[in-house]
Amino acid sequence: MGCHRPAATAGGRAALPSHSFFLRRPLRLHLSFPTSPAAVASLSFQAARGDDASSVFLQTPSVAGASFQVLGSAEGHKTAVPAIFVFGDGMLDVGNNNYLPSDAPQADYPYYGIDFPGSEPTGRFSNGYNMADFIAKDMGFKMSPPAYLSLNSSIKMETNFTGVNYASAGAGIQIIMNDEATIPFVYQVKNFNDTVSQMEANLGHQKLSKLLAKSLFLISIGTMDLSVNIWRVLRYSRKPSPFNIPYTLSSYKAIIMQLYGLGARKFGIINIQPLGCQPWMRKNLENNVDCNDSMNSLAREFNDGLKPLFSNLSSQLSGLSYSIADFYAFSNATFMNPRAYGFVNINSTCCIPPCTPEHEPPCQNRKQHWFWDLSYTTERAAKLAASAFYDGPARFTAPVNFKRLIKMK
Question: pTM of this prediction?
Answer without folding.
Answer: 0.83
